[in-house]
Amino acid sequence: MTKPYPHSVKEKPVKFIPNPQNYETSLQYEGMRLKQENKGKTIEQLRRQYAR
């Protein structure tokens, strides 16, 4: 069964947000660590901070 008005309903694409704990584990495999002042920040905040 199809939706009655498929053109009127716009679905937003789901944006992938990684788990910060998984990110920290990944960094440890690479031999890196997060600085203490960056521990509570989200990955999006870290991207903005270190963007060039």
Describe the structure.
The chain has 52 residues and is mainly α. Helix content is 35%, strand content 0%. It is built from 2 helices and no strands. It has helices at 20-29, 43-50. It starts with 19 loop residues before the first helix and ends with a helix.
Number of helices: 2
Structural class, judged by helices and strands? Answer: mainly alpha
Largest sheet: none
Mean residue pLDDT: 79
Query: Hey, roughly how much beta strand do the residues contain?
Result: under 5%
Residue share in helix: 25-40%
Helix/strand order: HH
Give the radius of gyration: 18 Å
Write down how many β-strands occur, each being a DSSP E stretch of 2 or more residues: 0
Q: Spans of 5+ residues with little confidence (pLDDT < 50)?
A: none
Q: What's the N-to-C terminus distance?
A: 49 Å
Shape: elongated
Report a brief summary of the structure:
The chain has 52 residues and is mainly α. The protein has helices at 20-29, 43-50.
Could you list some keywords that capture this structure?
single chain, 52 residues, mainly alpha
Which helices and strands appear, and what pairs or packs with what?
Blueprint: H1 20-29, H2 43-50
